[in-house]
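Bench log. Compound arrived from synthesis this morning; before running ITC I wanted a structural hypothesis for how pyridoxal-5'-phosphate sits in the protein. Inputs:
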Amino acid sequence: MSLHSNRRVDSVVDLVGDTPLIRLRSVEERAGGGVEIWAKCEFENPGGSVKDRAARQIMLDALADGRLAGKRLIDSTSGNTGVAYSMIGAALGIPVTLVMPANVSIARVNITRAYGTELVFSSEMDGSDGALVMARQMVDADPDRYFYPNQYANPSNPKAHYLGTGAEILRSLGDRLSHFVAGIGTTGTIMGTGRRLKEHSRSIEVVAVEPDDSFHGLEGLKHLGSSLVPPIWQPDGIVDRLLAMGTDQAWEASDSLCRDEGVFVGHSAGANVAGACEVARQAGRGAVVVTVLPDRGDRYFAPMKWERQYVW
Ligand SMILES: Cc1ncc(COP(=O)(O)O)c(C=O)c1O
């Protein structure tokens, strides 16, 4: 029986983390056999993605040291982090404002609004950078009203993975683990998990997957060469190498996971699994590789219209 089946919790916040590892046998075969490939099911977090971990740590740390006292959290994300802030804000009684470009998908608007989040729309012409600039202007204009967490620079983001993801993987696989592979967005997952794993053993190889081009279709991931480098990205001594991943290869890996394993995940998960497969093939027999499935595939569908009354 799983440990989870008897779990009783006080709040949805306590459901974040402690995600299961799933073995991906079809991927092991593709890597040539004789290896183990495991994936951390981050889509099992209550907000549906890995970002629940960072959002929870960021908000709990800011509550603990007073940065959030009497303030609203404001950020410029419309993706998984926005959902995570909204969910945890609702559970902890912290008001949340998200700035999004006006052309953001109706799904993101509906999900975040359902939690009571205030939405502010920036010009769709200015994209996500325009939303970021607007959020910063709002903070500058009224610093007493807002707490701006800046997940790209906030040490609580990698800390969530140091205390959670990394420690959980070690509890599951301990000294058998040989490689950890994860895609980079804010870089919180790889920095925090990598740091924890390297502390356990320098011989665990940590591989960061990044899109092979600045124009890519891997939501959540960043091409470092053409992006603002996140201040939390401090790879020395933690990340052993970068692996470039094509959008087509990642999308194919997502499709195969769904068909061959019954695991329906987003495209950054496909990138991670394709990366894990390559790393396992290169390492050869005996490799024990862990990667991450950040979110579910249905997050990328256009949703059914969300209204109080349906006509069937
Ligand atoms: C779907 C998805 N995959 C991967 C990532 C990357 O994780 P991190 O920001 O910890 O590097 C994110 C982050 O936003 C994400 O939303």
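What the model suggests: The radius of gyration is 19 Å. The chain has a mean pLDDT of 93.
ITC booked for Thursday regardless.
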